[in-house]
TrEMBL record:
Residues 1-126 form the DAGKc domain. Gene3D superfamilies: 2.60.200.40, Probable inorganic polyphosphate/atp-NAD kinase, domain 1. It comes from Halalkalibaculum roseum. Pfam families: DAGK_cat, YegS_C. Signal peptide: none annotated. GO terms for biological process: phospholipid biosynthetic process. NCBIfam families: YegS/Rv2252/BmrU family lipid kinase. GO terms for molecular function: ATP binding; kinase activity. It comes from the Bacteria. InterPro entries: ATP-NAD_kinase_N, Diacylglycerol/lipid_kinase, Diacylglycerol_kinase_cat_dom, Lipid_Phosphate_FormReg, NAD/diacylglycerol_kinase_sf, YegS/DAGK_C. Keywords: ATP-binding, Kinase, Nucleotide-binding, Transferase. This is YegS/Rv2252/BmrU family lipid kinase. The keyword Cell division does not apply.
Length: 290
C-alpha cells in the first residue's frame, strides 16, 4: 500500500513540527511513502488532488481545516483518506476514533480499517464536521484570533466574548422540506460530528457514518444566563436546556434576516449571503478509522 502524507506547518499555530518529525521516524520502514510540507491552502488542495491519482491513501496531517481540504480534494477519486491529528481541536478526528497520540494514529493507518463517511455541502463550500451560523461562527472567529494556547480554554473564553457581543437573528428554517415555526435564534449548526471547539458536545449522537445531519438550533437566551449553561455542552447534557433543539436531516434550507457569522470546520467563511442550501452526501469518501 502507498501513502502520501500532506503536512500543514501552520497546524496548532505552528507548534506541530516536532510531531511531524516523529511521524517520519515512525513510518521510516514503510514502503512507497512520500511526505509533502504544504505552503498554503491552495498548495495543499493541489497536492492532494495529484496524490489521489498516485497513492492508495492520502494522509492529512493537521487540524480540521486541513483534513476537510484534503477530504474534498479526494471526492470522486479512488484514494482513501488517512488522518494524523496535529491541530488544536481535532474535532473530526474524534469522530473516527483518533486522539492526539501519534503512535496510536500511525497504528490505525497500518491496520487500514476503513468506513465510508458522509460529506456536507452548503452553497459552494463543503464541511465534514460542523457548519455553524451566528453565535457558533462568532465564537469561532474570536477563537481564531485568540492568543490562548489550549484549544478548549480558547474556545470557552471566546464563547464568553461572543455571548456579550452577540445579537439574535430571525431565520426561516426548512428541514427535509418541513418549515419550522419562526423564532428568535442565536445559533444554528449543521453537525456531521459530535464535538467542536475541542471538547464541546454540539450533538450527542452525531457521527459521519449514519448518513444524517443533526441540525442544532439554540433560541435566544439571556446574556447573563448563558455562561452558566455552557458547562452542559462539556458534559454532553445540552439536551436538558429548553433553548436547545436538535433534528435529524438530510437537507436543510436557511434564510436569515441579515448576514451572520459563519464557520465551516473551524474556518471562517466571509459572506453577505443570507440564503443557505445544506445537503449531506452519504458515503462520499472512504476513511481509515479506528
Amino acid at each position: 500500500m502507498s501513502y502520501c502524507f500532506l503536512y500543514n506547518p501552520s497546524s496548532n499555530r505552528n507548534r506541530s513540527y516536532n510531531s511531524f518529525l516523529k511521524l517520519k521516524e515512525l513510518t521510516a520502514d514503510w514502503r512507497d511513502t512520500r511526505f509533502i510540507s504544504t505552503e498554503s491552502r491552495l498548495h495543499l488542495k493541489s497536492e492532494a488532488k495529484k496524490a489521489a491519482l498516485r497513492y492508495d491513501t492520502v494522509v492529512a496531517c493537521g487540524g480540521d481545516g486541513t483534513v476537510r481540504d484534503v477530504a474534498v480534494a479526494l471526492l470522486k477519486s479512488e484514494a482513501n483518506l488517512g488522518v494524523i491529528p496535529l491541530g488544536s481541536g481535532n474535532d473530526f478526528s474524534k469522530s473516527i476514533g483518533l486522539d492526539k497520540d501519534l503512535e496510536r494514529s500511525v497504528e490505525v493507518l497500518k491496520r487500514r480499517k476503513t468506513r465510508y463517511i458522509s460529506v456536507g455541502k452548503c452553497n459552494d463550500f463543503h464541511f465534514i464536521n460542523t457548519l455553524g451560523f451566528g453565535f457558533d461562527g462568532q465564537t469561532n472567529r474570536y477563537a481564531m484570533a485568540s492568543k490562548v494556547r489550549f484549544g478548549s480554554l480558547r474556545y470557552a473564553l471566546s464563547a464568553l466574548k461572543a455571548n456579550f457581543l452577540r445579537s439574535p437573528f430571525k431565520v426561516n428554517i426548512s428541514i427535509d422540506g418541513t418549515l419550522l415555526d419562526e423564532s428568535d435564534w442565536i445559533m444554528i449548526t449543521a453537525a456531521n460530528g459530535r464535538v467542536e471547539g475541542g471538547n464541546f458536545v454540539i450533538a450527542q449522537d452525531a457521527n459521519p457514518f449514519d448518513e444524517l445531519l443533526r441540525i442544532v438550533m439554540i433560541r435566544s437566551i439571556s446574556k447573563g444566563l448563558l455562561p452558566f449553561l455552557l458547562p452542559l455542552f462539556l458534559i454532553g447534557k445540552q439536551e436538558w436546556l429548553p433553548y436547545y433543539e436538535c433534528r435529524k436531516a438530510k437537507k436543510a434550507f436557511l434564510e436569515f434576516n441579515r448576514p451572520v457569522y459563519i464557520h465551516t470546520d473551524g474556518e471562517q467563511i466571509t459572506s453577505n449571503d443570507t440564503k443557505f442550501d445544506i445537503t449531506l452526501y452519504p458515503k462520499s469518501l472512504e476513511v481509515i478509522c479506528r
